[in-house]
Amino acid sequence: MDQYEPFVIREAINNCIAHQDYTKGGRINVVEMEDQLIFTNLGSFIPGSVEKVVKEDSPEEHYRNRFLATAMFNLKMVDTVGGGIRKMFNYQRERFFPMPEYDLSENKVKVTVIGKVLDMDFARVLARNPNLSLEQIIMLDKVQKRKPLADEDIKYLKGLGLIEGRKPNYVISAKVTASLSNEELKVHYIKQRGLDDEHYKKLIVEYLKKFGESPRKNIDKLLRDKLPDILTESQKKNKVTNLLSALRIKGIIRNKGYSKWFLV
């Protein structure tokens, strides 16, 4: 499994390109470290607040380079107009990784994406509480990173029983993390994120070796419970379609009409 979700890397780079202040004559920088990626571009963060962007989840009203951003969308370099930052946060959430960190000082934007679990307690909270909002997770992310919280946020998290301790040494509450072992956390992770495509392709090939030709509905049934829980039924069907197409293009399997599949 990739250390980073490809969309997160693309979105971070494309944001740098689309929002760089080119009048400053500077460069866009991407730095790869052992467990994190750092993206930097010159120019202020026009929306002003990352939390606001994540909360509102709507297209930007103002662009530094509107024609460039529109061209990138038309060329399908970016997947969406607006909403990409929130999607980055959600992908990190699905992996139980820390939230992307934005440094907006010195009239530039610096985004740090961490590619590992930073705090097991934070990961356990995400695994056990899939209904937490992104706003709540961003607050908890500050706790795991030992960053200051607003008084109202502290009161809010304490009221939910998610943190404990005294200012400034708050920690994620043991009550919401104690019952989930590391092995159980791995199970939650796999159910949420799934396995890589090669694993699913291997399952299809082994199934066809054992049972010969198979109708599509049986292959759907084989993989349905093994695909990540985050996918809807429609998305799971599309995933299976893509897996079958990839195997067909490689000449490993063929289909007889639409409904029957067999090994070549």
From TrEMBL:
Domain of life: Bacteria
Keywords per UniProt: ATP-binding, Helicase, Hydrolase, Nucleotide-binding
Matching InterPro entries: RecG_C_sf
Keyword Nucleotide-binding among record annotations: yes
Gene Ontology MF, one: hydrolase activity
Pfam families for this protein: HATPase_c_4 (PF13749)
Xref: Gene3D superfamilies: 3.30.565.60
Enzyme Commission numbers on file: 3.6.1.-
Record's protein name: ATP-dependent DNA helicase RecG
Phylogenetic lineage: Bacteria, Pseudomonadati, Planctomycetota, Candidatus Brocadiia, Candidatus Brocadiales
Gene that encodes the chain: recG_2
